[in-house]
Amino acid sequence: MKDIGIGLSNSPASKHLLRILDMGGQITKAPNKISIMLNGLSYYSLEVTMDKNCYIIQGYEQEADTLYNTTISILADKNPLVKKIINKK
After folding, report:
1. Nearest in space to 16 (alpha carbons), one of 69, 57, 75, 72
2. Which of 45, 46, 51, 80 could form a disulfide with 30 if both were Cys (CB 3.0 to 4.6 A apart)?
3. pLDDT bracket for residue 15 (50, 70, 90)
4. What is the DSSP string of 33-70?
């Protein structure tokens, strides 16, 4: 499994996600909430598969929010059931 870590990277996690999806990748695991780590930082990660390779894309703090919102938007566009779950919040 390859790790695309985003913390201090110049490239936002959502751009990595969109790039991989544009190249034919698929979101294979995506939590439905942002986690809060023991040190109080927000954290979000998801798994994307492309060409039989798994990638973990992760973000912290504001990047976690952006990555979560991007991921949920993509999933909602592909699956009407996800839209129902999101709208219930």
Report:
1. 57
2. 46
3. confident
4. S-EE-TTS-EEEEEEEEETTEEEEEEEETHHHHHHHHH
**Contact predicate 19/71, CB 8 Å:** no
User: Whose structure tokens read 């698929």?
Assistant: 26
| Tens of pLDDT, residues 23-74 | 999 999 999 999 999 999 999 999 999 999 999 999 999 999 989 988 988 8
CA neighbours closer than 13 Å in the CB half-sphere of residue 78: 9
Among 53, 54, 88, 51, residue whose Cα is nearest residue 72: 88
Count the residues in the chain.
Answer: 89
